């Protein structure tokens, strides 16, 4: 049995998904998100994300943490820089907790879970929901993205 935590980084909302299972079988899962207020300064928002991720890692003691890799859109380069800062504190939290880390590019995650590297968030959410056998939509989308990353970690661990 392995426990995998998936993290979908974001300054306003960071998704967290946790799956536990063996091979291609998921025995349990949980998800949620960390939200920060736009009224707070950047450093305080990053500290909140770091502290909450550390708390989850300490409580859940996962075997593997899968984080969505940083990407940047040409039209919004500042967003890529901000995302890089968020990923930095998440990777720091993971390293300090001693969990094995992996980063997965978003297009690769979409390709693995939906068969389409350009899938929409709604398509990815439906694929994750179907894999987990859930009836109700997973919200927010950051949480379904994080669950998808955790599923990839579980399935890849099986393939080792």
TrEMBL record:
GO terms for molecular function: DNA binding; DNA endonuclease activity; hydrolase activity; metal ion binding. Keywords: Cytoplasm, DNA damage, DNA recombination, DNA repair, DNA-binding, Endonuclease, Hydrolase, Magnesium, Metal-binding, Nuclease. GO terms for biological process: DNA recombination; DNA repair. Transmembrane segments: none annotated. InterPro entries: RNaseH-like_sf, RNaseH_sf, X-over_junc_endoDNase_RuvC. It comes from the Bacteria. CDD domains: RuvC. Belongs to the RuvC family. This is Crossover junction endodeoxyribonuclease RuvC. The lineage of its organism: Bacteria, Pseudomonadati, Thermodesulfobacteriota, Desulfobacteria, Desulfobacterales. The gene is ruvC.
